[in-house]
Every structure is written in structure tokens, then in C-alpha cells.
Amino acid sequence: SICIKFAGQVLPKHIFLFRTRHVVSTYVPKVRICYNCSNHISKACRSNARCIFCDKAPHEDAQECSMKDTPHQCEGGHLPISQSEYPW
User: How far apart (Å, rounded) are the C-alpha atoms in residues 81 and 44?
Assistant: First the structure.
């Protein structure tokens, strides 16, 4: 696969490249998340580690978190790194 940037807000349905028709689809990069504080990537983080479910100090075992099924960000029943909330 290849990544091509288009000017503007409207994507064509297909393009021709090397005499071959290719369907165009939206590229959505993976969510970059810091497992310490959820504000950036871990490499640049200076914060102490936090539980990704409840935003408190990490538990001995992540399975022990009482907020496991309802993360603190939106209470939508998914992890902060989930892409299920996005319409694309």
C-alpha cells in the first residue's frame, strides 16, 4: 500500500497509478498514547505511571482495577487506545 496526500477536504473515489485503477481510502494512524499519563507518547513522559483504566497509581495486576469495564476518559466501555470511537 502507499500513502498519498490530497489537497483539500474531498477525496476522490479512485486514482489511476501506473495505468491501474486504485480505490482511495482514508488513512487513520494508530493512536499514540502514553501509558503513564495519557497525554503524549511514553518516550517523552516525565510523569509517574498510572492505571489506564482508572487514572490512579498502577495496581499489582491490571485485572484488579474496579474501573476496568468503564475507563475514566468517556465511560464508553473501551480502552483509551481503542479506535472504535472514530467514525472512519
Answer: 18
**Distance of alpha carbon 60 from alpha carbon 2, whole angstroms:** 43
Give the chain as a 3 state SS string: CCCCCCCCCCCCCEEEECCEEEECCCCCCCCCCCCCCCCCCHHHCCCCCCCCCCCCCCCCCHHHCCCCCCCCCCCCCCCCCCCCCCCC
CA distance 61 to 79: 16
Tens of pLDDT, residues 4-49: 888 988 999 999 999 999 999 988 777 666 766 655 666 777 777 7
Q: What is the pTM of this model?
A: 0.41
